[in-house]
Design goal:
The protein has 233 residues and is mainly β. The chain has strands spanning 3-7, 26-30, 52-56, 60-64, 73-78, 82-88, 94-98, 106-110, 114-117, 133-141, 145-148, 154-164, 168-176, 185-189, 193-203, 207-217, 221-232. Helices cover 0% and strands 51% of the residues. Strands 2, 11, 13, 14, 16 and 17 form a 6-stranded mixed sheet that branches. A 5-stranded antiparallel sheet has the order 8-7-6-3-9, with no helix packed on it. The N and C termini lie far apart (48 Å).
């Protein structure tokens, strides 16, 4: 899995607190209009009279979300396996097949590692799928703060893992319960994988706080982490 780390340095003075580390963060997941991987797979092509099958000619090949090695791995096919081909890309270098591991699913295999039977020229052209963010994980460290009231400000560190199923531009921003938000920022995914965003906030007083990571594009997603802050005189 491709993992990249992004340090943003967005540091509004938000809250207040001290550092008691609890390893189990409080995370609320609310995927606003988020699309699951299954929801964004390329629709099955229209019925065609062409019947084309393929056989795997290597020990193990990948069946991917889209026509290229930059797309997420969906399944694997072993040497001797066969599959029904229902479409192709424009250059006929990738075949769109019925996933042998999922009767209702489809994925893409490279033409270089397969042998086909049938008239591939009659296969419909299938456009590359719409790439989306497929997972967001957000945590705060520490996720709970209890300090003496004269020990402010305190610092909360945030880490977000953002995953996509292919090459895309991911637009995102922070929002905090204090009413502040960051500017829109873009992550560039050259291929499917995970990138990590690191940031931190300074807290100036006890309260119940939350921070949200908003994924704005290519699909909408909101991930929230809560952290209570209290103090003793």
């Amino acid at each position: 899995m491709d993992r990249r780390f992004i340090y943003t340095g967005f540091i509004p003075a938000l809250l207040a607190a001290c550092v008691i580390i609890n390893p189990a963060p409080i995370v609320v997941h609310t995927p606003t209009a988020a699309l699951s991987p299954a929801a964004v797979l390329t629709p099955a092509p229209a019925a065609t009279s062409a019947r084309v099958t393929l056989a795997v000619k290597k020990t193990l090949i990948n069946c991917r979300f889209g026509p290229g090695v930059t797309y997420e791995l969906i399944n694997e096919l072993s040497e001797g396996d066969s599959a029904r081909v229902v479409g192709r890309n424009e250059s006929s270098t990738w075949w769109y097949v019925r996933d042998p591991g999922d009767p209702n699913g489809h994925c893409w295999v490279s033409a270089d590692v397969t042998e086909t039977q049938g008239d591939v020229d009659q296969l419909p052209l299938i456009q590359p799928p719409f790439v989306t963010v497929t997972r967001v994980r957000l945590r705060a460290e520490p996720n709970r703060i209890v300090v003496n009231c004269d020990q402010f400000p305190q610092t909360i560190f945030l880490e977000a893992e953002v995953s996509s199923n292919g090459p895309t531009f991911v637009s995102w921003k922070w929002e905090a319960s204090t009413g502040v938000s960051s500017i829109d920022t873009v992550l560039v995914f050259e291929k499917a994988g995970t990138q990590v965003i690191n940031d931190y906030y300074q807290i100036g007083a006890p309260n119940e706080y939350w921070v949200k990571l908003h994924i704005l594009a290519p699909n909408e997603w909101v991930e929230e982490v809560k952290f209570p802050v209290s103090c003793t005189p």
